[in-house]
Amino acid sequence: MKYKLWYWAEIQGRGEFVRLPMEAAGIAYVDVAREQGSDALVADMQARDRRPPFAPPYLDTGSQVIAQVANILLWLGDRHGLAPEDAATRIWIHEVQLTVTDFVAEVHQVHHPVGTGLYYEDQRPEAARFAEEFREERMPKFLDWFERSVEGEWLAGTRWSYGDTSIFQLVEGLRYMFPRRMAAIEGDYPRLIAIRDRVADLPGIAAYLSSARRIPFNTQGIFRHYPELDAA
């Protein structure tokens, strides 16, 4: 049975952190809302009355429904060998993923610093202030830590894990969102950029990136490019 991945049809968003390792490992799944529309996602969430997911993405495995990106990846890592074999390193990769979750939450705050229910246009001045702090302080703080965390060619040594596909997505998202800032600081993170490049070369990822299933970044998703928020 193919897994069913539920996420918004129009954006990469948080769902992309789940898609990438499944694509890299050749795990069969159906991106349901991409086929049936986001209304089908809303209806499915409303219909679940036992242990309902709080928000997408969530993965229907056929026997259970798992929500939250880090939780889904922890399960996939154990089930499909997408995480290191030893328990201590599996927990470490999970810790990395939880830190990715923290970072992505701050990324979203850049364009929604006042309220998630407001449009970006309703909070431009506040977004400009938040973006400056994010570019100057928060990006280096997180990226420095990820850089220090690399233990070899990959985060955990000699084999890729879901943590590495998440690093790929972070780099790609930040390049789209802050092209000038990333161009200025990428040289400080050679290990992360090397991981990004190695992930891009994985056969499953290369095929996915060249397909129509990898929809472009846009200003509806988490990583949004507003030129006025970017600076070197």
Quick take:
This protein is mainly alpha-helical and 232 residues long. The protein has ten helices and four strands.
Could you outline the blueprint of secondary structure elements for this entry?
Layout: E1 3-6, H1 16-25, E2 29-31, H2 32-36, H3 38-47, E3 58-60, E4 65-67, H4 69-80, H5 87-111, H6 124-149, H7 162-177, H8 179-185, H9 190-201, H10 203-209
Parallel strand pairs: 1-2
Antiparallel strand pairs: 1-3, 3-4
Name the features.
single chain; 232 residues; mainly alpha; Glutaredoxin; Glutathione S-transferase Yfyf (Class Pi), Chain A, domain 2; four-stranded mixed β-sheet; 10 helices; 56% helix; globular
Question: Would you give an account of this structure?
Answer:
- There is one protein chain.
- With 232 residues, this protein is mostly helical.
- It folds into 2 domains: 3-80, Glutaredoxin (3-Layer(aba) Sandwich); 87-201, Glutathione S-transferase Yfyf (Class Pi), Chain A, domain 2.
- It is built from 10 helices and 4 strands.
- It has helices at 16-25, 32-36, 38-47, 69-80, 87-111, 124-149, 162-177, 179-185, 190-201, 203-209; strands at 3-6, 29-31, 58-60, 65-67.
- It has a 4-stranded mixed β-sheet.
- Helix 1 crosses helix 7, helix 4 runs antiparallel to helix 5 and helix 5 packs parallel to helix 7 (162-177).
- The protein is globular, with a radius of gyration of 17 Å.
- The termini are far apart.
- The mean pLDDT is 96.
